[in-house]
Specification:
Length: about 120
């Protein structure tokens, strides 16, 4: 399996509903390091998994609606706890829609810190 990974960052604010979240029920910020991995069993006719420039553009476009936003105020997340896991899946689905044709998989990892992260992996 061949893999290409690109990375970006995004700063957001949000809060969570539910006692399980303890102090994170209050509004707080997060700066995620976001990694998007694209996979193919075989390279395409150009010898690529995905064009790295296009992958960077697609990741930046997927992150743009979130950047410097309070996710609690965005209609697309109404009624949703925007956990790191949820956001990884949301971003992964956007990247699959943008670049998924011909790929065998896409994985998005959101790193909250050097000791905590979550991923969503979609087989295509």
């Amino acid at each position: 399996m061949y893999r290409v990974t690109v990375r970006d960052r995004v700063m957001i604010a949000h809060s969570f509903r539910g006692e399980i979240f303890g102090p994170a029920q209050k509004l707080h910020g997060a700066t995620y390091v976001v990694e998007a991995e694209f996979r193919r069993r075989e390279l395409d006719t150009d010898g690529l998994v995905v064009d790295i420039g296009l992958a960077h553009q697609a990741l930046a476009a997927s992150l743009a609606p979130l950047a410097y936003q309070n996710l609690d105020e965005l209609p697309i997340f109404e009624g949703v706890n925007t956990t790191t896991e949820y956001l990884a899946g949301w971003l992964c689905d956007r990247l699959v829609a943008a670049l998924g044709q011909g790929l065998d998989g896409v994985c998005v990892t959101l790193r909250e810190s050097d000791v905590a992260w979550a991923s969503c992996d979609r087989a295509l």
